[in-house]
Amino acid sequence: MARKKKTVEIEIMDNIFPNKSVGQYEGKRVIFKGGIKGQKVKVLLNRRKKDYIEGRLLEVLERSPLEKDLSCDYDDCGGCTYQSLFYEDELKLKKELVLDLFKKEGVEVSNFLGIERSPRVEGYRNKMEYTFGDEVKGGPLVLGLHRRGRFYEIVDTDGCNIADEDFTIIRRRVMEYFRASNTPFYNKKTHKGILRHLVIRKALSTGEILINLVTTSQGEVDVEDFTKELLNIDNLEGSIVSIFHTINDGLGDTVKADKIELIYGKEYIVEEILGLKFKISPFSFFQTNTFGAEKLYSIARDFIGDEKNDIVFDLYSGTGTIAQILAPICRKVIGIEIVEEAVKMAEENAKLNQLDNVEFIAGDVLKVVDDIMERPDLVIIDPPRDGIHPKAINKIIDFNPQRFIYVSCNPVTLVRDLKVFNNRGYRVEKMKLMDMFPRTPHVEAVCLIER
Ligand SMILES: C[S@@+](CC[C@H](N)C(=O)[O-])C[C@H]1O[C@@H](n2cnc3c(N)ncnc32)[C@H](O)[C@@H]1O
Fold this sequence. Notes:
Layout: E1 6-11, E2 14-16, E3 20-25, E4 28-33, E5 40-48, E6 52-62, H1 87-105, E7 109-116, E8 127-134, E9 141-146, E10 154-155, H2 165-180, E11 195-202, E12 208-215, H3 223-231, E13 239-247, E14 259-265, E15 269-273, E16 276-280, H4 290-304, E17 309-315, H5 321-326, E18 330-337, H6 340-352, E19 358-362, H7 365-371, E20 378-381, H8 390-397, E21 403-408, H9 411-423, E22 427-434, E23 444-450
Parallel strand pairs: 4-6, 7-22, 12-13, 17-18, 17-20, 18-19, 20-21
Antiparallel strand pairs: 1-5, 2-3, 3-4, 5-6, 8-9, 8-11, 9-10, 11-12, 13-14, 15-16, 21-23, 22-23
Helix pairs in contact: 1-9, 7-8
This protein binds S-adenosylmethionine.
């Protein structure tokens, strides 16, 4: 008979980046996801490893002395981790956790320049992906975020303080609309149902809003009536200029498109940062914290300085933000990006901004770096959370520029990649953290890497 797993009550002694806690039970370390140091928690001891026990956080029994800010009502929502900390304490914690990580991995930074706060701590997100579901099995339709640690349950996040206020109004209206028409949500167990996600994006500087309703093809949605309902909302600060309907019959829980149709307005919204305009379409990457992005790109720009560069590569270029910000200080910038739609947007953005020295190549960095003939004197790298593909990193270093700028949204993969740079004779000259994601365990880092 299988041994019953044990539940224990312990105090969290430490946190590990990102979002892991360490406690102790019978002299052994217990490590599990979630939690804040100082909390007393109930943990399920899942698996004994060589030098620690892997646990699962079940319940917070006592708050940590650090938890002094109780302004969010949704204790069980999985969207945030640090809602209960004062923002200054959150910044301090993130900084300590990243520095601990670098120390543990043995990566040295010549000049660590601290952590920069987000210009907005509330309402900073310009994009939310809400999921349709129910809060309790068989309960009414809900549109919100996943309950912490749960795959099936959705929390109605009315008044969520990290999203723009217009999102809360639209989310509520859409939820009520589909409740009234009894449209079933897509059940992730049975794979039956229609409503999957509602994605809302807002260009915070122009107020333009883009909405993307994601459904399966198992039933019809009256898109004309849905559009009318959205356009009838009269208390938004911004304005809805673009509505899409996406069909996704895939089994995974991510927002992706088997088919996408523009059902109202224009194909994109326009955001402005650092004096440049950027068109954003439903699936193209854009930093989720607009005003934070201005600071982030300014840090990268400061690290580079005013000296004119000849050829600059912007690897993982998205809609071409960094490439265009750097265009004035380079003879030529070449962006490489895998999502074709984002490349199309990047090209349109460059035209919109009247820049003629930027060029974008659609393709996988891993492959494109083999074919490209130009030799850069500066390379910017801004990869997704997984970091640089292990097969691509040495090819990128082979370009042998004097300097790299590495912008990372995941310090764990950053430190892994920096070790490779170190082994190839590069050092981390400067690093600054930028809090692009207040209330969550994530933090962005910008590094200047020099030969
Ligand atoms: C963190 S975003 C950076 C985007 C851009 N630098 C910005 O700040 O807006 C990472 C980008 O890498 C792209 N990407 C992911 N894997 C890639 C690959 N193997 N080759 C090229 N681009 C890739 C993603 O589509 C995404 O646009």
